[in-house]
DNA sequence: CAGCATCCGCGAGGATACTG
DNA sequence: CAGTATCCTCGCGGATGCTG
């Protein structure tokens, strides 16, 4: 982490990019709950306290297009869909653990 | 990281708390630039590409009251103030590094 | 059960100008 | 040089209701 002293315009620290994938009120928790395996929409919603259906729906779609999770539609009636972490999503584990450790230490 | 299957209401993952300290468009970069030592307001502003004076001012004040950094006023004319990381601020380093590593790996 | 459409409040962050 | 005050925009996330 070395840097000079001249003015910078477009520069940004690499951590920022990671933050983009983790910011969003529900994203960390979604990842957390999917760490153990796939969950259906409503199962996920029950685990997150108080997410709106619409909001969770949006969040999942965004995370899917970010490549963090994959959506599986069983094409059944009544509908059945589940969500699971992709490899990319799982690879965030160390990051979340570092954050958890910091939060833990901070008291 | 073990958890059951019953409905949860108030639960949240510990990483979220850490996120609160790091979210904010400029916070990660402020921490990054202060890692090497104190910087004066304008020096900091030059390093962050395109922050508004007002926005940086607000950001710094918030981070100060979060205990992440400390502000030192030299009481001179013209004004001279510099900002440096507190111990708490510096302790975020591993977290930022984990995030940086992930961003790095993600291509 | 899963998802979309519509409407809305609120706060983060930017533009600009002024002060000591 | 550092900080504050005012005004404004934009998008996140919530509330509610409808559909297959």
What is this structure, in a nutshell?
Two copies of one chain form a homodimer. With 107 residues, the first copy, chain A, is mainly α.
Structure explained in plain terms:
The structure is a homodimer of 107-residue chains. The first copy, chain A, is mainly alpha-helical. Chain A has a single domain (14-105), classed as Arc Repressor Mutant, subunit A, CATH 1.10.10. The first copy, chain A, contains 6 helices and 3 strands, in the order H-H-E-H-H-E-E-H-H. Chain A has a 3-stranded antiparallel beta sheet. Chain A starts with 14 loop residues before the first helix and ends with a helix. The interface between A and B is large, with 44 and 44 residues. Chain A binds a DNA duplex (20 and 20 nucleotides) through helix 4.
| Assigned CATH class of chain A | Mainly Alpha
The number of helical segments of chain A is 6
Mean of pLDDT of chain A: 90
> The CATH topology of chain A, please?
Arc Repressor Mutant, subunit A
Radius of gyration of chain A: 17 Å
Q: Indicate how many domains the architecture of chain A comprises.
A: 1
Q: Which class best fits the helix and strand makeup of chain A?
A: mainly alpha
- CATH homology superfamily name of chain A: Winged helix-like DNA-binding domain superfamily/Winged helix DNA-binding domain
